[in-house]
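Thread amino acids onto this structure.
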């Protein structure tokens, strides 16, 4: 259904990319076309304080991004050119506020009643990496945090999980 029109395909790609990379929404909408390296499957991201980092995107997001670049983006350009990766219907760069609205619309269409934000996807990205054994330093680098204490905010573990970990791994559990 999302591939039936260029906007749906663009929105689907942006949503996947946001969760697959943990980018800030401002970083996502400011990505230049040249930021994606097809060969390595990485994005070159200019983050806060103009700090550059390389972020892997994963195979699913890579496939979607390549489809977007090869098929969808040209439809949004209408024969024009643009240095921006993600475009509006007028072939212009996407704005942060516009993407917030798009994400809200996607949530409504999906029947999600809870308020959702681009940062929730960033938070999920970090939390899922950490819960599955990624080290804090690697997550820090992917998120573009200059201070590891900022990344540590994502290390919250639910009490029920702590209890099961204690039971499984402690000799007196």
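Threaded sequence (173 positions):
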């Amino acid at each position: 259904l999302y591939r039936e029109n260029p906007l749906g395909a663009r929105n689907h790609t942006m949503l996947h990319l946001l969760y697959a990379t943990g980018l800030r929404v401002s970083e996502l909408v400011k990505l230049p076309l040249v930021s994606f390296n097809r060969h390595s499957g990485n994005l070159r991201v200019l983050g806060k304080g103009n700090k550059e980092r390389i972020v892997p995107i994963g195979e699913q997001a890579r496939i979607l991004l390549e489809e977007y670049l090869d098929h969808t983006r040209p439809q949004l350009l209408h024969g024009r050119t643009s240095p921006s990766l993600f475009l509006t219907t007028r072939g212009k760069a996407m704005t942060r506020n516009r993407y917030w609205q798009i994400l809200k619309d996607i949530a409504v269409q999906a029947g999600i009643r809870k308020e959702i934000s681009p940062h929730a996807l960033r938070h999920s990205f970090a939390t899922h990496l950490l819960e599955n054994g990624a080290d804090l330093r690697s997550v820090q680098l992917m998120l573009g945090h200059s201070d590891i204490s900022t990344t540590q905010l994502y290390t919250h573990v639910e009490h029920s999980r702590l209890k099961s970990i204690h039971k499984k791994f402690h000799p007196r559990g």
